[in-house]
Amino acid sequence: MTERTVAVLAGGLSHEREVSLWSGRRLASALRDSGFAVREWDVDGALVERLRSDPPDAVAIALHGGEGENGSVQAVLELLGVPFIGTSAPACRRAWDKPTAKAELARAGLLTPEWVALPHTTFRALGAPAVLAAMVDRLGLPMMLKPDQGGSALGAQVVTESADLPAAMVSCLAYGDAVLAERYVTGTEVAVSVVHDGTEPRALPPVEVDTGDGVYDYTARYTPGAATFHCPARLDTPTLAALEETALAAHHLLGLRDVSRLDAVVDEEGRVQVLEVNVSPGLTETSLLPLAAATAGTDLGRIYGAMVERAIRRG
């Protein structure tokens, strides 16, 4: 059989460019080890011409943030008729917007922390002090703030004092035009990756994230040793099963394809509270999908190799 050619897309111009490059290099190496001919392409002005003049058999997307997760790159690939691993453009847009995704999952009966999403114009038009006071009255403190779009926990922070809210809002809005404020839920933070490397999508073993007394922010995600991971998570069997069921349900409800990652908290009552769903999970040395894959007895090359074949058959 002719060797399959895969173009791994990484980089781009988002705030998460460096993380994307790390993911791309690791994915490219794994696919080469599995027998694929791999091209590593940045997402820039030359990409469309490359895809037209030298089309690969399939594209593997290792982009994080911006066009790589909001459906823009996926829409271009669909326009060009290039098979790719991952979710379609419309479903990417739905998952990328955190309030939209949370609303859809909540309507379907999944638990997610109570929230409000407001653009920066609301704070300017109605007066920031009054709006922030209303947020505290409704959601309480501590409160989780994050941009309504984006990944890698950029701009996300926990606020414990009302006096710290204005500065936290400004920091959060540096990464987006609107802020998502959530009721802070204490418990065990867990990530569950879903992959479609066989006949049906399956959930990999849940990974527990332990940051001590800290927050699982950008630094904790990508600094070796800043967080401790346990896979499978140190939870009882029924809770592990509930996490896997919730990840699969969210994957289907949002119309996701091939690969996704659910971020959740198991609260003090043992309930799974969905935080968000990611359509392009990180693949770096400190990322959670590779760890879950290893615990399940497989690796990135086998998982993504199977998804390459799926993408080609779809195309």
Automatic annotation (TrEMBL):
InterPro entries: ATP-grasp (IPR011761), ATP_grasp_subdomain_1 (IPR013815), D-Ala_lig_Van_CS (IPR000291), D_ala_D_ala (IPR005905), Dala_Dala_lig_C (IPR011095), PreATP-grasp_dom_sf (IPR016185)
EC number: 6.3.2.4
Domain ATP-grasp per the UniProt entry, residue ranges: 102-309
Major location (coarse): cytoplasm
Keyword terms of this UniProt record: ATP-binding, Cell shape, Cell wall biogenesis/degradation, Cytoplasm, Ligase, Nucleotide-binding, Peptidoglycan synthesis
Cellular localization per UniProt: Cytoplasm
GO molecular function: D-alanine-D-alanine ligase activity
Domain of life: Bacteria
Catalyzed reactions per annotation: 2 D-alanine + ATP = D-alanyl-D-alanine + ADP + phosphate + H(+)
Pathway noted in the entry: Cell wall biogenesis; peptidoglycan biosynthesis
Functional description taken from the UniProt entry: Cell wall formation.
PANTHER family the UniProt entry points to: D-ALANINE--D-ALANINE LIGASE (PTHR23132), D-ALANINE--D-ALANINE LIGASE B (PTHR23132:SF23)
Family: Belongs to the D-alanine--D-alanine ligase family.
Name this protein carries in UniProt: D-alanine--D-alanine ligase
UniProt organism field: Pseudonocardia humida
